[in-house]
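Following up on my earlier message about iron/sulfur cluster. Here are the inputs again, as you asked, copied directly from the submission form:
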Amino acid sequence: MANKVRIATTSLAGCFGCHMSFLDLDERLVPLAELVEFNRSPITDIKHCAPCDIGLIEGGVCNAENVHVLREFRQNCKILVAVGACAINGGLPAMRNSVPLEECLREAYLDGIGVENPMIPNDPELPLLLNQVHPIHEVVKIDYSLPGCPPSADVFWKFLTDLLEGREPGLDYDLVHYD
Amino acid sequence: MSHITIDGQVVPFEEGQTIIEAATAAGVYIPHLCHNPEYAPHGSCKLCTVNVNGRNATACTFPAVEGQTVCNNTEELNFDRKRLTQMLFVEGNHFCPSCEKSGNCELQAVGYHLNMLDNHYPHFFALRDLDSSHPDLLLDRNRCIFCNLCVRASHADGKDVFAIAGRGINKHLIVNSASGNLGDSDINVDDRAAHICPTGAILVKGTAFKVPIGQRRYDHHDICDMSAGEQHGE
Ligand code: SF4
Ligand code: SF4
Ligand code: FES
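Thanks, got it. Here's what our run produced:
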């Protein structure tokens, strides 16, 4: 097929669980690969987005780099999709939002049980943390959302086949879960 | 017997019944969260909003009157209900993957019923306290939607354990005890108030995650297809 649909994916403040769930498409990945190609994605290791048809974003934004990556995706993807609970509402990383950032860092790197060489990481290459973790629709416009922690492979399949076959994407009751 | 129509269906009612009571008796589902047939209506969540003779009203408070034309399951009303549900989600802190109530939660079930796929609004990330002082019960205010059911149930228990205090983002559930902690109140695990919460805000300890994912109440069953008792967790 000459013109494959181009997809980019990334995990921001996520756990890669949504990507793993995507790979649960298993043998369905073979027919999918006939129709789509992957651009920037942990699957290809391409570091920056070319213009794409679909961008799949896992995870919310917890640091400055997440914001840059998210904006790059929005600029390059015709359709941007919030994938999974963390992209949609911040998810479990956002449970730190009720704790001041300094306290989080203290607990993780200075005072926590079992911490050796206590020191808050300060390498200039490390992206700065945001005070709170935010869902991605608070930063850029999102076209579709796929709920779930993670969304099942069937959710990805339903969504992508709807789009590829020119239908308005929709999820039936059994495919909608917030956990 | 007197009748109203709901979405064109003729629904009988008895004198004194609200629209939602008549609907429930006829097997017609009207989405709701703060309504529970056991208690007097509270009318706060607005999810049960229907159109009565051209004007919107809450079905849990509005009396059924002979000849009313009620619209319920319309695209427009369901869209409004979805937005209301999204407001409830962003007002609290609902992290379903880590919530013991997930799969059996009425707030979630209404979201599923309305095909709510995102939260639409920016999140408040309000600061809400968690109270684990009671030996048998957990109170996680992050998940409270102020439906007032625990307040009403506690009164029916002959006690007065809960009340809602504060305004706006500072609104919160308070507990009637000298310390303000649930452990020092006179609530008991056998009280109706301990089991009435539609969300995961009041939970019985030691019962979490007993039912596997896939077999929980709303995993594969839309709340609209359930009997009134099943809808409220019986
Ligand atoms: S109370 Fe319901 S909606 Fe809130 S986190 Fe728990 S399962 Fe989710
Ligand atoms: S704790 Fe539960 S029952 Fe009580 S007001 Fe909050 S949501 Fe309603
Ligand atoms: S159920 Fe009627 S207002 Fe809440």
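One observation from looking it over: The CA atoms of residues 19 and 53 of chain B lie 13 Å apart. Hope that helps, and feel free to reply on this thread.
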